[in-house]
Structure formats: C-alpha cells, structure tokens
C-alpha cells in the first residue's frame, strides 16, 4: 500500500489530545483513518475504538490501519453514536474531527452516553476545520452548549495554520 500522508490539521488535533500509551479512546467519525493511525501509533496497552456511519469510512480505516487491527489496538465498527454500546467501560479520551452532530441538532442522549463512559478527568475533544470563519461562532456556541448541558466543562483551543478550532470537554 502506498504511504498515506497525515494532514497537518489531524496531527495538530491529536497532539492537543496528548494520547498516552494506556489511553482508552473512542473516535467518532473515523473517515479515512488518519486520526486512528496517529492515535494507535501512540498506544501500547491502550486501545482505540473507532466508529463511522459510513461503510466506506470503516473500510478505509481498517485498510489503512490493518497492522493496528491485527495487533488488537484498534477496533472499527460501522455504527452511529446514538446506537453505540461502547465495549470499553471507561474511556479516557474521545476524539472527533469535523463531526457535525454536536452543533447541527440537539444530541442529549449521545452526550449523556459520553458523560457516562468518560472517566473523571477524561475529556471529549471535538475539532472543526475553521476554513469557513463565519460558521465558527455558531459551531462553538452550539457544540459547547450541548456539552455543558451534558455535564462537561468546556474550553476552546485554536490553531491558525492549519485553521482548526477545538473544544475540550472535561468531565
């Protein structure tokens, strides 16, 4: 397989998460698998459970990360967050990049599931490309409200190049 590059925006987001070797991570919307590749490369005893609603996203992530799947560090499933029953009882981190769920509609059940599964001191990391600056205030407002209403404390991080906004929701 040809070597696939990891976009700078994904590198920055995963760096912000500060993945530790024993973290138990859920990735929502794994898409082409770049985030999974970086996260898994930092895990030793930890695991990543990656989900996507798209069959092609799941297939791409599995192909790109076959060595991590074989090593038992990565499990990938086609499912949405609303119907997910996380196999990991306690998550240390949740990662999502450009997942619209948290700002396009009310999602109290999904946020409640995350709050239940994320350990105290753990966090949900939501990142959005800020290449349409006019949308950023609405994204931040609505996603923050969803998370705060679900019991999280939210802080915001921003990177100018690449243009990414991140919401860090701590339990």
Automatic annotation (TrEMBL):
The record lists the membrane-crossing segments as: none
Matching InterPro entries:
Methyltransf_25, SAM-dependent_MTases_sf
Q: What residue stretches are annotated with the Methyltransferase domain? A: 25-122
Database matches in Pfam families = Methyltransf_25
This chain's protein is named Methyltransferase domain-containing protein
